[in-house]
Amino acid sequence: MTVLELTKTSNDTLRTISPVPTMLKNESGYVENIFEGKADQMIKVANYIKEKGFIPESLIENEVAWLYSNLGIDDQYFALESVEVIAKHVMALYGAKINAYIRDEDKEGYASSSPSGIPSEHHHNNQHQHQHPSMVDINLKRESDDNDRAVYIHTSKPGVSTVVGPQYEKRIDTRYLNISSRRCSYRLESYRSLGTVSYSSTTQLRCYFVSRCQWVDPDVSETETDIKKVSDITFLSRATEKTLDLYQKVMLNVLTRTGPVIEMFEIEGIRQKRLVIGYRQQTTLNLFSALSDLYHYYGLFSSRKYVEQFANGVTIITLYLNPLMDSGSNHHLDGSHPPPPPIELSILQIMKETSLIYCLPTTPLQSLFQEAKLSVQEAIYGYVGFVFAGHFLNRLGSEFVSLASIVDQNNPVHLDVLARLKKRLRQDTFTREYVLDIIKRYPVLIRALYVNFAMAHYIGSCSENSLQPSLSFQRLHMNHVLNEDEIIELIRRTVVNNHEYMVFESLLTFNRHVLKTNFYLQTKVALSFRLDPAFVPQGEYPIRPFGLFLVIGSEFKGFHLRFRDIARGGIRIIRSRNSEAYSINFRSLFDENYWLAATQQRKNKDIPEGGSKGTILLNVDQQEKSVVAFQKYVDSLLDLVINPGKCGPTNERIVDHLGAEEILFLGPDEGSAEYMDWASQHAQKRGASFWKAFTTGKSQSLGGIPHDLYGMTTRSVHQYVLGIYRKLGLREESIQKIQTGGPDGDLGSNEIKISNDRTLAVVDGSGVIFDPDGLNRSELLRLANGRQMVTCFDDKKLGPRGARILIEDKDVRLPDGHIVEDGLRFRNEFHLSEYAACDLFVPCGGRPESVDASNVTSILTGAGEDGRSPKWKYVVEGANLFFTQEARLALERAGVIIFKDASANKGGVTSSSLEVLAALSMTDAEFSEHMQMGKDGSLPSFYQAYVAAVHAVIEKNAQLEFEAIWRENKRTGISRSMLSDEISFAIVKLNEELRHTSLWENSALRRHVLSEAMPKLLLDLVGLDKLMERIPMEYLRAIFGSYLASRFVYTYGIQPTQFAFFEFMSRYYEKIAALAANP
């Protein structure tokens, strides 16, 4: 049987990469524990028990001997425990047997549960449990005060998961294994006793021994790969040379990939199988306990289990798995699942499903799997359906759309009521808890819907020489497969109300629209689904996305959405301060992603790429796992875009219902800027042909142009600020400004560095600093240059009316006498407070919809001599979606000059586009010479000049759009916020039309437009002819269309005359004719 030691190779196929033997000798792989003092200790234990008098003297010898000999407990137990502890365990075992006997007497020899206070074993089938006398229940634990060691012992029936009781394996996961790191790790040895707890019982004992690792070399590098240098001292002394060799190979494989390495070995002469799983520490949760549920489901039990940790951050779990003597006895009799298959077949399925459990070790549907009401695949599918329903079930319906179409869009009261109704409908109709409760009620519907899903995406082996179908395939063909009409009828017959029907109908909607998924890949690290976005209601989301991905991992949930085949946008990592914030973020996750992408689509009007955006919402208990979450998110997206329909040597591939090549381009956003290098390099390792252009904002050593270092987004934002000053004849030094987004962030720090105004307040994640007389600019620059939060502001440099309020502050008195009861609330609402009055507001950070129809009224008054003027005169949006459109319109009606995000902060996307253009234009050698930082830290002269050229393009595009918006506002009276959208829509629409006209076929015109659109530096370095050879044709068409469309709309506005485009193009033909006449 083949050992599956799997990794992703350069062409993203799967292969066996190590000649590890497939057959092992019938040896444990560890030096056996032998406790020399066992006999003497046994005598001392008996004497101790005799002194206590709890067991009749005539029975003491028998009870002690049973523990020491008949049970077959590993000697490690006796070596670790004291006489007193072992004696107490003997007495506990004796008491448990008495208790079991009493229960049998009380219940005529039959019992389904233990009496109060003694946990019971819940079997997979309670009917079968009643056929046996009451089980002897023993649950013993000892955890050291210094948390260095722990011992757990409990009665355990082979092949049975428990859903109540002490749950020691889950405790071990939570207390020791989940938190293991290079700094502090825990290893585990677990043994099942060879004998039973008494002559009349079939129950055995399971022992767990946990100990803190002591590294051979505590200072070893995390890049070290020699197992003897990164091992725990105890492991190194106990592991055989064969085990060290095996683990060494597993370790090397773990270090070359993102996900788990899964291997299986046969054992000479017996049916036992040894399963070895290697992975990086803290890349999954609760895997150890989840694996037990998995092999129990298939009628197997473990005789030994080991968890070994290594100082380079690798974890290796080894399970010694055996078939039950009567495999069918533990599985239920209701016919919903067959008896477990032979171990020779089930072990292969366990290997497949281990990768699924690695992705999602525990879900809210775990109990249905433990009780064998659902398989692991069905349970995880049900959880995915729950996540999907949570985002797309709470839709507003046709009634809301009709109401929205008739209200007065210029009436803030109407808009406020509509916004409140929208939030109420989404939050209250179907809560997450309500949806989950409905899904858990009907396992039969989950099974039917899963089969419908699997029939479309499970491909099995794609080898014609496959000897036998997998268990997954067999399960799908056991019963009649329902078509959609039959599933709908089954749902109608099964549920009891319309809400329940809607929940399961949403799962069917999910099935209909999944085009690709990595659900059945063995090497996945998170689950990803490419969805056809046709189900997204246009009443709520007016522009239909081109493509939509849903990604779910053990640390996060996320989306990726794009509006054009070739599209670009950042990946935003969203954190939640507490459970309440997480619930809000979860409910709004898709909305936030959609509107960020829509904003990006409008923002990208000047560049070839359309708009996209990705979001990663960290689970509430995984706020420190941003690196792991990002890596899993990216790897899972790559699963679906790199050769999805091709079959590799190990016969795995993805069913591709899309049937078209896809390329994704990712950029930096909140929380992800520092991960762009990894994503690009990982795409290269995965064999993505587009790896150089896969991410932007990379480090300079990879040829990237970091947005924050060069203030790319701020360059664009500040041009709008300067435009206002220029039009109104204002001096920057006299302008009072506040900003959200602090000196620790990209926009916040660069806004401080590029401006010369009088800043009154800065708000960031740590709190607020404000001074009505103006903050000390030198101190602000110090923080901005050091990328420090406002908590580091030297409060000695505040004026007498200034204050620094941090989010943890309580009941702080301000200089004017006002009491701040809660610093967090003060920070969150500062922009709405009386202290926020100023000339210019530049939001450089903050949560979406911080100002909406419900709170904008607090900004419309509070300034001026009579207090009736708006708090701000001018607003330039640096942060995305800080205002809702309703709020912008209300501010404009009150006289505020506001420029929205899609126009003002497009500098970053322009920089990214030009970064990609350079990568596409040059050979690898040219790119290395002209765009990549040298090993000595020096930057090529071309690179420095190219950055300056990018700055110039950003500033020029910002000036052109500013002038167009200002001019059209004066000419038409249309609000600037509306004009921003209309200009974007006009450019995007014209771009699409131009790309499919005969203009592109005009060679002279094509060359002239491309020469204008591309940076002169690239033209001088490479030449137009070579650029046109190297850059993909569709990308060149996009450059051609976007350049002409943006220049036309910026020049002629949103309502051009019938002859305007003719006049516009005539100028190009005149230039071409002049060049031809004077070559």
UniProtKB/TrEMBL annotation:
Q: Which residues form the Glutamate/phenylalanine/leucine/valine/L-tryptophan dehydrogenase C-terminal domain?
A: 704-973
Q: Which Pfam families match?
A: ELFV_dehydrog (PF00208), GDH2_N (PF23147), GDH_2nd (PF23152)
Entry's Gene Ontology BP terms: L-glutamate catabolic process
Q: Which SMART domains match?
A: ELFV_dehydrog
Kindly state which reaction or reactions the protein catalyses: L-glutamate + NAD(+) + H2O = 2-oxoglutarate + NH4(+) + NADH + H(+)
- Indicate the family of this protein: Belongs to the Glu/Leu/Phe/Val dehydrogenases family.
Report the protein name in the record: NAD-specific glutamate dehydrogenase
- Organism encoding this protein: Mitosporidium daphniae
